[in-house]
Amino acid sequence: MGPPLGQAVEFISSVLSQRGPQAVPYEERNKWTIREHLSDLLKMFPNLTIKVSEYHTNDGRILHLIKAEGTIPIHYQAHKYNIPVVVWLPERYPLQAPIVYVCPTANMIIKAGHTYVDPSGLVRTSCIANWLHPSSDLSTACQEMAMLFGAEPPLYTKPPGYVPPPAYAAATAAGSGVRPPDAAAAAAGVGYAARPPPPPALDPKQQQVEELKGSFQALAVRALGGRLQAGLEAFNRHAAEEMDGLLEVQRKLVARDRELQGMVSAIQQERTGTEGLVSAIQQERAGTEGLVAQLGRQSAALEAWLNEHEWKADAVAAAAEASGQLDVNKVVVPADDLSRQALAAQAEDCAVEDVLLALEKGMLQGKLAPDVYMKQGKLAPDVYMKQVRLLCRKQFLARALGLKVAAAQRQQPQPRSSGSSGAACMLTHGDTWSHR
């Protein structure tokens, strides 16, 4: 019987947290899983004890590994037996399957040709052979082992005068360094229980035949297993190469898809820009067509006006030809009294503007005398300023009259032009005056 579960769990935690040369070689990310697996194993098989021992690997290294040592109960022919085992946790556990050995006592031997145990005591059950993390664990492996050993016990009593065959001795010597419990452990109850009778002993000659038969069978199974393993490794390599090829194709397809997505995005952006440009061109075309239509209407109105008043131009031309000179006062004739007043105000405004321009040029050219009214044909400055004030007053009155006439023209309806009467003409007064 192992120590209480609480003490065992504390021992496991202290071992996994230990640092230094005696530290176990398990990865930090796997230590919690190891603790849980060992705790579950002790709950199911309390006769097992957790220890840390040296393990000699095939490449000559010596590792400090955790092992579960003790017995697991089996039931064979309505009797209960305790099978001594050692369960080693390799350094890559739980990714690697545990290493399980059956450890016979001094008066026990391993059954030759056993289905799941080779002559060295190494256990090869389906759960261990097909170990897969995280679905596999120690409790399941030991449960399967107890069930299989109950159907086919791996140990039986050593007959008198038993001499192990060479194949068995070589297999035992080539083991992993695991040694069976000593006589004191056997006396303490490790191994088969004392109360149930062990399986009957066999005849020595028959035993040797069975052992040789089992040895050859184990060798054949091992050779077949090696061939199957080689075939499986070749298949795995081929599958890995195919997978690499498929992954490369997938990478190229993903890159091509990204490239196509970029091209589609660029085309969509270009299409959006083109649509905006087309919309702007259509708006500009609509504005141009509106301007063309407006100019067409104005041109038609002007042409209609010219056609309507063409006879006036002919009459003025005939009178000028008859008299020998052109009367400019008859070229433009006001249509009504308001137009006549507007024309007169415009003429007065333009005349005053011309006089002011002439006076300004005289001042700039230095033709004005500094202190007299007229001196040697030049205009004095004070006289210039007086004349400018008078002219500006007249221009202001003319422009005021023009504004009043324009306001009156806007208030009355426009007469329809017919016959000899012309349409009202809105006149602009001066260089700075305009209707508003």
Short description:
With 436 residues, this protein is of the alpha+beta class. It has helices at residues 5-16, 28-44, 126-129, 138-151, 166-173, 183-187, 204-308, 310-323, 337-364, 381-411, and strands spanning 49-56, 62-76, 79-88, 99-102, 108-110, 155-157, 374-375, 378-379. Helix 1 packs antiparallel against helix 2 (28-44) and helix 9 (337-364) runs antiparallel to helix 10.
**What order do the strands of the largest sheet run in, or round the barrel if closed?**
1-2-3-4
Structural class: alpha+beta
Strand percentage lies at 5-15%
Mean pLDDT: 79
Radius of gyration: 62 Å
Helical stretch tally = 10
* Fraction in helix: 40-55%
Low-confidence stretches: 169-198, 417-426, 429-436
Order of helices and strands: HHEEEEEHHEHHHHHEEH
Give the overall shape. Answer: rod-shaped
Whole-Å distance between the termini? 119 Å
Q: What is the count of β-strands?
A: 8
Q: How many strands, what sense, and barrel or not for the largest sheet? A: 4 strands, antiparallel
